[in-house]
Amino acid sequence: MIFSSILLHQFIAASAAANILFQGATVISFDEDAQSVQVLRNSSLLVEGKKITAIFPSGFDSPIPEDTEVIPSNGKIISPGFIDTHRHLWQTAYRTIGSNITLASYSAAKSPFVQHVIDRFQADDVYYGQLFGIRESLNAGVTAIVDHAHGTFTEDTADASLRASIDAGARTYWSFGVHTPLNNYTLDLQWQSLRTWAETIDWDATPVKLRLSFDEFSTVQQDVIDDIRRNIRDFNISVLSTHHLGGPWIAPNSPTLLNGLGLLDTDVPVIFAHGTFITPDDLNLLREHNHYVAISAESEMHFGHDYPYAHKAMDQAALAVDAHFTYSADIVTQARI
């Protein structure tokens, strides 16, 4: 839903109520029969529990449950929440220290895979970066986020990232960033963390979902790939996130490579972030197996990815923000670009 900051805070405060009525807003809806957007002015939207149960003109005499919290919404726009298909939420802390940076310099100085970043970020840093990143997203109308959570340098920072996501209460697909270790957080310990989270957290009580991200398909041994496949199956992981740029850039996790590893012909969606140099063969694989590229237009322009082939992937593309530390979490801007 798109709100002013004040209305968003009212919504968060009222969310403990069983029922909420947003009264007198302009509601952006969708006509399934006509397959077109509907703009419903001076309308009200009723939420009962966790579901939207009615949209009606404000003057319409519609039955409202007695315990309904009424939020006056005149002059506001309510729309379906936006979905951000690729983000690194913990990096909110990079605001002001990484706002003018190329991809090459980011990889050398700000990537989570350089030692001085790992040494400087503690669990609290990751927790608050994650929490504020989610709150900013909600304020920008983003209500579902695929978090490529690579601030997982240690067991403590990984726990902090997940805990902040749960505490924020947003619909976050927290994709645990598994990686070859740069410290004593070994792959075995990372898989142990995944098992602990999967088995001890009450996932039905939170909108957060446990997912997986990995960026080293081209460099690891087959046993690591086997572990990924097994853990996806054992822990019911239903999203796999990875970076693929192609061309002169790092992260060569192409659809062709993952297809050869047996990771495309499954019912687990794979999200390939950016894909700016994606090949025609790769695009054909995306279409054949129904996987998607997450295009973060503002980020890719900012970092200098270049755009030689991205326009050819529009039928298998979704929108993303990616590096919100350089600008806002606004999906509408990505759509306009």
TrEMBL record:
GO CC aspect terms: cytosol
Domain Amidohydrolase-related: 77-316
UniProt xrefs under Pfam families: Amidohydro_1
Ranges in a coiled coil: none
Cofactor(s) needed by this chain: Zn(2+)
Residues of the signal peptide: 1-17
Annotated keywords: Hydrolase, Metal-binding, Signal, Zinc
Gene Ontology molecular functions: deaminase activity; metal ion binding
InterPro entries listed in its UniProt record: Amidohydro-rel, Metal-dep_hydrolase_composite, Metal_Hydrolase, Metallo-dep_hydrolases
The name this protein goes by in its record: Related to amidohydrolase family protein
